Amino acid sequence: MIMQQTVRTGLLAIGFLLGSMTAVAASQTSTGSNPADSADLSALKREWAETVETLKGYTAAQRDMAAARAKQGLDAMDRHIEQLESRTQQEWDSLSQQARESQEATLRKLRKQRNDAAEWYGGMKHSSAGAWETVRQGFIDSYGVLNDAFSKAWREVETHPADKTP
What is the pTM for the complete model shown? Predict the structure, then answer.
């Protein structure tokens, strides 16, 4: 029994390290790139899926490793949100009033979803063993909502350049 638990813990640690290396590689390749590049969005979605799958495997005893992985996901999301905000600022003068309002609302909603996920992350770091399943699933669910909100914002930034003022 102890041997099985040790092997399982080792395998999860390897998965965590591989996921970490994937996240670092993804952030290095996307730095300075156009945030609306569909290849980057696909890579980001794969990264999110890997994070969720990894988190599903963590037990309450592995809470610190799970929290570290969740933090990586939130940090990566922060970088991508900043890219979207930067692109919106760069194109601001050429956007119509309607496009400006829409992008502002979308980015506000995205930040709210990010903050909701951060609250679940805080719960993960401090949860009891009895509350672990609920808190972990709450983070996974909020991370999925954040993923959807980011994808919507990404698509909106892509479509609004066509809505520029003459």
Answer: 0.69
Query: How many distinct structural domains can be found in the chain?
Result: 1
pLDDT, one tens digit per residue, over 25-67 is 444 334 444 544 566 778 778 888 898 999 999 989 999 999 9
Judge residue 21's burial from the number of C-beta atoms within 10 Å of its C-beta, 0-12 exposed, 13-18 middle, 19 or more buried: exposed
**Residue 111, token pair as written in the block:** 């930040």
Domain harbouring 55, CATH code: 1.20.120.330
* CA distance linking residue 112 with residue 108, whole number of Å: 6
Torsional class of 119: left (φ above 0), alpha (ψ -120 to 50), beta (otherwise): alpha
What residues make up the domain containing 80? 2-163
Question: Please, are residues 57 and 15 in contact by the beta-carbon 8 Å criterion?
Answer: yes
